[in-house]
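re: that complex we talked abt at group meeting.

here r the seqs, copy pasted straight from the sheet so there may be weird spacing, ignore it
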Amino acid sequence: MHPSLLLLADSRLPAGGHAHSGGLEPAVTAGTVTDIPSLTAFLRGRLATTGLVTAALAAAACALAVTATEPVEEDRLPGLPRAGGATGTGTPAEAATHRASDPPPSGTTTGTVNRATVTGDGGLAVAWEVLDAEADTRTPSPAQRRAARAQGRSLARVALRTWPSAALDVLARQGAHHPLVLGAATAAAGGGPRDAASIAAYGSVTGGASAGVRLLGLDPLGVNEALGGLAAAIDAVAAEAAGYAGRPWAELPAPSAPVLDLYAEAHAGADLRLFES
Amino acid sequence: MTRSYAPRAAITAACDASGVTRLTRLRSDGPLAVRETPDAVYLVGAAASPLGGDDLALDVEVGAGARLTVRSAASALALPGDGPSRMTVRARVGAGAHLDYAPEPTVAARGCDHRAVTSVELAADATLRWREELVLGRHGEAPGAHTARFDVTLDGRPLLRHALDLTDPSVYTTAPVLGAARAVGSVLLAGPGLTTEPHTAEGLSVLPLTGPAVLVTATAADAATLRRRLTTGAERASRTPAPAC
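got the structure back, here u go
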């Protein structure tokens, strides 16, 4: 992996990630995470739900950012579909029933749709807004939406300084969700959708792991061993997430974590807390 | 003998010139029977279903200005059989129309491999109450695989995309997903006048979405507790008292 991408995945990236526990602090408060085995289970559940959603959004964002920088042929300029149109060329039912193993449904070769969407004045901004709305619809918890936007802003500030790009400019202005900024930053740093998915999936568990060390005084060597044990699962989630890049955004996975949503809201209202989320 | 059902049932409600809702289409098919009663249209299981291999579909259409309430006579039991089973529900709610869809829970029996796919298209000023409940296995039983995907659009824009993947116990029994809960469910309310304040209680979250809608989610040890929590949450989400769940 290119050193620029290692830098982007590094927990020492000054993007404020250390202020978020990914729901681990409220889980510790609730008593459901107390030791390394329960921390590992927590991270496994988080990875398969929020981790998959954010990895797929990051991969889609990276694909969009890469597409937007490529020259576009004139016959691919049919004008902008209305907001939402780019994501909904198939009906939601078709989109939802479409599996990775199926051929793309007819009329939903969204590589072309997205490509058309991002051309022309303002088209790029509209496309990013549509993808950001897809992130909103997969994040029912208001506290998690706030945390995702706060982390997106912090990352955009860092990424724009190091890997400036038009996509990051737009996302910084829009205050976009973190995985979108991560995907655009990955593209600007020379990576592809699979890299963005890997960094997002990896980041979906490392924040909680280091929070576990700080909150519970867990053995850092043991926590690192647990993360190593999750490596194959992280890679599988990243591969699955990257498989959606180029497909209609409506189809992106949306597995929920009901208890994590509850924790996020309870934590936002808590008087005493170490982490923002 | 192997036999799979592929029923296509449908309910259409339309508003007549005097403003009264009429059911203009009630199509029962195989195990999916629909029956009109004074207070609601009921889904009645006319045969054991869904069984593995079944591909059931229900189409619900509520025309502009009409009001439709859908209930079910009993819970649905997802059973194993010849391959995976699928239940596809597609609903369209027109301008100024209201759909209240709240069937009894689905129970994921041991060995089932069921997928529930739901899409709801709301016109700009349509309103909705949509309840889904899932029970993981019958008494003392480990459930089979169950996945659900729920896509809702409002005026052509996505409002909620929410899935539940209960295929791998090493994932769904973890603290972030369900923990030790045996029942999980949600109520989606869409329309004006809903709360903008999130709220949580034991096993219950009231989550205002970005659009004019609130998602109430709950987890519980059993179906009765789940129903109570969802009812409490839906009341909390509505500024005016919600109908009993």
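couple things i noticed - Chain A has one domain: 3-10+20-268. Residues 3-10+20-268 of chain A form one domain.
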